[in-house]
Design goal:
Radius of gyration: 36 Å
Mean pLDDT: 76
Distance between the termini: 39 Å
Structural class: alpha/beta
Number of helices: 24
Shape: globular
Number of strands: 62
């Protein structure tokens, strides 16, 4: 459809027409630009069917090329200008010579797209508007307009008396003043200006919609304004109230996309502070920068992030300025006129390209703060010698490679020196002059190999982390804080970084004022006694060293925090708790302690200890008696020791205990006296032998209980659970049986993790085990929400492949959950377009970044994706592992017992080239090494507003797998910051179960001091030809069993194939005709809940194929369709049918009606083989597989499953897609509110409600392109006979109950598979009995 007569402007379509496709063919320099009208809201509509159904009539699709300029486009559509908006943020007017399509291409190339054809396709994608969007008019933002300028014609009366009459006047609220003017001559006529700062705005109750404005002071004036509507009244009242509440005359116009200030603003002559940060201010025009000297009282001016390019000399005419900020404006020089600003006290020039300063700046005698960080200085400017009031040298991120301390002697006024990130190699002093004025020195992230600061005699605080220091010389008499930990990598196979200090110099012990000492990750073997007995030291961090003993304390010391983890200590000094009475934090995890010192020598103790970490030692239950003296203890971690029990009488003494971790011991029970700990909110006791559920559900503040991997058999519950309980983990308790009443009580828990009771079926014995198995764990730490999500798919793309991922949102949970839901689908789609690992993995990350939509504009997440696949298309080929990651999530492969890192850490602290790239692009890196103070990562999914500093392009690496590969570990930053690669590998090797291993990794990280979210995935691997489990067909005799009651529903048979009815007691799918009603389905499925598995006679077991040599299968691919169904039960309200003696397994029902909303895009169901039914009961009317003309079509049918404890009806032709949903096959079990999920083999079937199902083809979610539902599998006549022979060669699948078998080659001495995983097979039509539908039940988790 043409628009406005332009041949290149068409209305937006859901897809390109033939005309658009023809335009794009053959030339990658051609493309299209979507132009939005000015009335469109700057932000895209929220995802959803309602939002997407509303047409946007003012959207134009303009065909152009990369050489088309803005001027040409404006001439074509008869417009005046074009505007661009990046990441939903500021809107900038484009220059006439700029080329919009080339801008899009450059933006995509900077993201990481390399293929020109793919760039062309992505540029035409409508979802790209969340990243870059063009407007034909400046978009109108009502909220922004309200805060900038309010204007209207209203009835006005001056004064409080009745002498003045009401009259129509032009009323303007701009800046800090109310302007009342004539309607006709609002700018040239007489004006009344009323300053509002410190004044009043009040409601006039005698008149409707009337406000009284009064100025401050003894000569206050008053105006009454009567508004026409309530909306106008509220808008003016809201804005005026903000102005009158200010204590200074401040106008904040930051982030408004302004090119000029409103002209009315110049009438506010009382303005003293003007903030114009993050705009596009121009010099010319009525409101341009050239007019800023009109503000006669202006003291503070912020013009940072305005793309100025040159220093605006007009600013030097505002002689009243005391504060000026010109950061991030690409300035290359400072004009000589800067010397005019004699009142200037603060000058910020960070983030520019300055390499020198004019001598005229030396005349700014009142200047006390000068920001020069992230410029291009190669030396300290000499003009600083004359700026005698400046006390801080802020020059981080420059190019100063050497520092002569003699220079600092001449600058006697400098007390604080910041030279971070300078590539500093030498700090030298040519003479023995003393530098007496410097008290704080920051030399982090440089290249120093030795540091001699002996001449800096009054140094109080020194930061020299992440250097390569071998020697450090200081004068320590005045030293208070020393941070000397560093990041010198010791070897490739370890994530531990350390300094090279083997002993502490004497000057450290001589420091009389030292309060904090950080010497972690060194090579220290002993601590000087004088250091520990210092009378000033309050915090001592000595972890990750080689300490074998700690000296005795000779006298009372003020020590408050002591970290001794990861050393070789066999004992602690007996006087530790007796002399260090102020000690509140003690961490001695990962040592060899067999006991702990007593808290006192008598029954009364003066201990103030609040946090005690004793994890990973050799402590026995005897240590419990020594803990009772620490009655102020709030956190106790004593995991992975040798406790057989915990003294009940001792535990009752710890009444203030809030967090208790007893995991990894040999406990058989937790004392009932735990109920005395009324403040306990966290109990973690996984990986023990506990058989009795502890009495903790009566505690008033309990929030988290983790009793996984134990031996629980039943749970005795009170009548009601505490409302505070948010998470309960009972997985890994194979003997635990939960009654229906118990499940109902658990229904309100936000995060409930339970095992799914597995029922052995014939399909299990027929399916081959996969050569991998996974387990994962997530812990929220001290935060209220879990911001880590895991993706785990053992059967990826219905093939011998796997996909695992972990996503860490740091402080947001939305982006990790979105990536968890969509990234597997995106990978599936990209694998159809390319087989090159670097291409499909990179495009997967970039596409997922785009699909985040508006959520990815301000929020982001680190991400790691692992894809296990065959090296070639040959299914008999060996396996390879392709890993891609952004951010700080990491993957480690254990090969021959040694860690092999597979990922790259994209953080500023760990990646030198990324740090340099970010510095060159002039990002501001704050003192905590974060880009713009937001994130420490240089590569993320999301956070697009930080582009080009933070990019979504991943690191991609492919590693061939071999039989020496034992397991794979995936973890987020919090895990590997505390647990080294080598320790992680040793930890997993010592644990038999992947889930228990993942649990232990997270528990160790917490005990080592981590307070953040922790996520770990452990994947056991059994790769190699020795894993082959192929078996020839054999004949077995099965015992007979009673036949079940027939299902009273028409069943569809296949041609010459008897059918099968599958029991729903184990989640087995039962197939009915589509005419069966939902209520009938619910009733009949419930009636078969307790059926026995029948079999009779002698049956032939078909040839068994392993996952390395799978049989050829045929399967269809169908379009995914959303489905929402409501099922009701008129028999009972407790999940029982009228004929049932026991409830359906896993069903939770809180009423007579179960409502389930399902979005198939986020659900995965697979078919599991079940027991063979009698031919009478399985008489199919029509099977749904036709072969006329060599075609095979599957007719519509209804599949009913007891998945999630409810009856879910799904259209039969959607089953293929439900089986293939890759990313969502990991979203099984009960969905956590924080985005985490429960594994299918580890969870009960629970009812889920899809509250966050994607409903839109753009924005957050876009389902991958799928084949049309009507597509048919067509076999050419020439190949028909060959296909029939291949199908005839396949052995018929006959079901029958048999004991599960585990191939001997898969019985690894380290890794145990208590539940042999089932490998899904596909339907293979052929002669003989009908193939069994094989299913792996996944819960809907949305």
């Amino acid at each position: 459809m043409k628009r406005n007569g332009s041949r290149s402007c068409v209305t937006r379509k859901t897809r390109f027409g033939s005309r658009e496709r023809d335009w794009l063919k053959g030339d990658t320099q051609r493309g299209c630009v979507c132009l939005y009208g000015g009335t469109v809201d700057p932000q895209p509509p929220a995802s959803g069917t309602q939002a997407s159904s509303t047409p946007q009539t003012d959207l134009q699709l303009v065909l152009c090329s990369t050489s088309t300029t803005v001027e040409e486009l404006c001439a074509q559509k008869k417009g005046h200008a074009l505007y661009v908006q990046l990441h939903g943020d500021l809107v900038r007017r484009l220059d006439p010579s700029e080329r919009p399509l080339q801008m899009v291409y450059d933006y995509l190339a900077s993201m990481g797209y390399a293929d020109p054809v793919r760039v062309q396709q992505e540029a035409a994608n409508s979802d790209l508007s969340c990243l870059i969007r063009f407007y034909s008019e400046r978009p109108v933002n009502a909220d922004q307009q309200e805060r900038t300028l309010l204007k209207g014609v209203f009835s006005v009366r001056k004064g409080k008396t009745q002498l003045h009459k009401w009259a129509e006047r032009q009323v303007i609220l701009c800046g800090t003043c109310l302007i009342v003017a004539s309607v006709k001559d609002s700018l040239t006529g007489k004006m009344h200006i009323l300053p509002l700062v410190g004044g009043k705005v009040e409601e006039v109750k005698r008149r409707q919609h009337c406000l009284m404005f009064s100025s401050a002071g003894s000569q206050a004036q008053t105006y009454f304004v009567n508004f026409d509507t309530l909306a106008d009244y509220q808008r003016w009242h809201r804005q005026a109230s903000k102005v009158v509440s200010q204590t200074v005359s401040l106008v904040d116009l930051s982030c408004y996309s302004l090119e000029a200030v409103p002209e009315y603003l110049f009438y506010s002559q009382d303005i003293t502070h003007l903030n114009l940060r993050h705009n596009f201010m121009s010099l010319q025009g009525p409101g341009g920068l050239l007019n800023l000297p009109r503000f006669s009282q202006l003291k503070s001016l912020n013009l940072s992030h305005n793309r100025l390019g040159v220093f605006p000399e007009c600013v030097c005419e505002i002689l009243t300025l005391t504060e000026l900020n010109l950061s991030c404006n690409s300035l290359h020089a400072i004009p000589l006129q800067i010397g005019n600003l004699q009142s200037l006290q603060t000058l910020s020039l960070d983030g520019n390209h300055l390499s020198s300063l004019p001598d005229e700046m030396g005349g700014l005698f009142q200047l006390n703060s000068l920001g020069l960080s992230f410029n291009s200085f190669s030396h300290v400017p000499a003009v600083l010698e004359r700026l005698s009031v400046v006390d801080k040298l802020a020059m981080a991120g420059n190019r100063v490679e050497s520092l002569d301390l003699c220079t600092l002697v001449r600058m006697s006024h400098l007390k604080n020196i910041d030279l971070r990130l300078n590539g500093l190699r030498w700090v030298k002093s040519e003479n023995l002059e003393v530098v007496s004025q410097v008290t704080q020195l920051d030399l982090r992230d440089n290249c120093l190999e030795s540091l001699d600061l002996g001449s800096v005699c009054n140094l109080e605080t020194l930061h020299c982390q992440r250097n390569q220091l071998g020697t450090l010389t200081l004068s320590g008499f005045t030293l208070r804080m020393l941070h000397a930990s560093s990041n010198r990598e010791s070897n490739r196979a370890s994530s531990s970084y350390r300094n090279l200090l083997e002993y502490l110099p004497d000057w450290v012990c001589d420091c009389r004022k030292i309060e904090m000492l950080d010497i972690t990750r060194n090579l220290l073997s002993e601590l000087p006694s004088r250091l520990l007995n210092s009378l000033s030291l309050r915090k001592l961090l000595t972890g990750y060293n080689r300490l074998q003993r700690v000296p005795e304390l000779l006298d009372h010391v003020p020590l408050e925090a002591l970290d001794l983890q990861h050393n070789m200590l066999a004992e602690l000094p007996e006087s530790l708790f007796l002399k260090a009475l102020n000690l509140k934090y003690l961490n001695v995890s990962a040592n060899a302690l067999e006991s702990i010192p007593p808290s006192s020598q008598s029954e009364e103790s003066l201990s103030t200890l609040q946090e005690l970490y004793l994890t990973e030692n050799n402590l026995s239950e005897n240590c419990g008696a020594l803990l009772i003296g620490h009655q102020n203890l709030r956190i106790l971690h004593i995991a992975y020791n040798q406790l057989l029990s915990f003294p009940a009488s001792k535990l009752s003494k710890l009444e203030l205990l809030e967090e208790l971790n007893l995991s990894g011991n040999n406990l058989k029970t937790i004392p009932s006296t735990v109920s005395s700990c009324k403040r306990l909110h966290t109990l973690i006791a996984h990986s023990n032998h506990i058989s009795v559920f502890p009495e903790i559900l009566n505690l008033p503040e309990i929030k988290l209980v983790d009793l996984s991997c134990n031996e629980l058999t039943e749970i005795q519950l009170p009548d009601s659970l505490p409302a505070t309980l948010q998470e309960l983990d009972l997985t890994g308790n194979s003997s635990l049986m939960l009654e229906h009443k118990t499940l109902n009580l658990f229904s309100h828990i936000t995060t409930l993790k339970l095992d799914q009771k597995s029922t052995t079926t014939a399909g299990d014995s027929l399916s081959a085990s996969t050569p991998w198995k996974h387990g994962y764990s997530e812990m929220s730490g001290q935060r209220n929400k879990l911001c880590v999500s895991v993706l785990a798919v053992d059967h990826f793309r219905d093939s011998v492949e796997a996909c695992y991922g972990i996503f860490d949102g740091d402080r947001n949970e939305e982006v990790p959950r979105l990536l968890q839901c969509t990234m597997g689908d995106v990978l599936c789609e990209e694998l159809q377009h390319s087989s090159v690992d670097s291409v499909y993995m990179c495009n997967t990350f970039l596409t997922s970044h785009r699909k985040l939509g508006m959520a990815g504009q301000k929020l982001g997440a680190s991400g790691l994706l692992c894809y296990i696949h065959h090296e070639t298309s040959d299914l008999g080929a060996s396996f390879s592992l392709t890993v891609a990651n952004v951010g700080t999530c990491q993957a480690v492969l254990c090969r021959n017992g040694q860690p092999v890192p597979l990922s790259k850490v994209y953080s500023l602290e760990n990646c030198t080239e990324e740090m340099e790239r970010v510095k060159v692009s002039k990002a501001i890196i704050t003192e905590d090494n974060k880009v713009s103070g937001v994130t420490c990562c240089s590569r993320l999914l999301g956070c697009s507003y930080l582009s080009p500093w933070v990019l979504p392009k991943p690191w991609v690496h492919t590693e061939p797998l071999c039989s020496q590969d034992e397991f794979l570990i995936l973890g987020n930053r919090a895990l590997f910051e505390r647990v080294s690669y080598q320790e992680a590998v040793c930890t997993v090797q010592a644990v038999r179960d992947p889930r228990a291993a993942a649990k232990k990794l997270c528990s160790l990280a917490q005990s080592y001091g981590c307070k953040d979210n922790i996520g770990a995935v452990v994947v056991s691997l059994h790769i190699g030809e020795d894993s082959c489990t192929c078996e020839p067909p054999v004949t077995t005799t099965e015992p007979r069993g009673p036949a079940p009651a027939p299902v009273p529903a028409p069943v569809i048979p296949g041609p010459s194939d008897p059918a099968t009815n599958l029991s729903s007691s184990s989640g087995i799918v039962t197939e009915f005709s589509s005419e069966t009603s939902a209520s009938e389905i619910g009733s009949e499925a419930g009636s078969t809940a307790s059926d026995e598995h029948p079999s009779s006679g002698t049956v032939t077991r078909p040839e068994r194929r392993c996952s390395l040599h799978p049989a050829t299968t045929l399967c269809g691919l169908f379009q995914q369709q959303p489905s929402s169904t409501t099922f009701s039960s008129n028999q009972s309200d407790n999940g029982l049918d009228s004929d049932d003696e026991a409830p359906l397994e896993g069903v939770i029902s809180n009423g007579s009606k179960l409502e389930v909303e399902v979005d198939i895009h986020c659900c995965a169901f697979q078919l599991r083989s079940g027991p063979h039914e009698s031919s009478k009961d399985l008489d199919f009317e029509k099977r749904g597989f036709d072969h006329p003309g060599g075609k095979m079509r599957r007719q519509n049918s209804v599949v009913v499953s007891a998945t999630n404890g409810c009856l879910l009806a799904v259209c039969g032709r959607e089953i293929a897609d439900l089986k293939k949903s890759p990313s969502t096959s990991s979203l099984f079990g009960k969905k956590l509110s924080n985005g985490s999920v429960v594994a299918p083999e580890d969870s009960h079937n629970l009812i889920e409600v899809a509250l966050e199902a994607p409903k839109k083809k753009s924005g957050y979610f876009t389902a991958p392109a799928q084949q049309d539902p009507e597509d048919q599998l067509i076999v050419p006549p020439s190949l028909e006979q060959e296909v029939r022979e291949q199908l005839r060669g396949q052995s018929p699948l006959v079901s029958g109950p048999s004991a599960p078998t585990t191939p001997s080659s898969l019985k690894d001495p380290v890794w145990d598979h208590p539940h042999p995983p089932a490998f899904p097979s596909s339907l293979v039509p052929g002669p003989g009995p009908t193939p069994i539908l094989q299913q792996e039940v996944y819960d809907t988790a949305l």
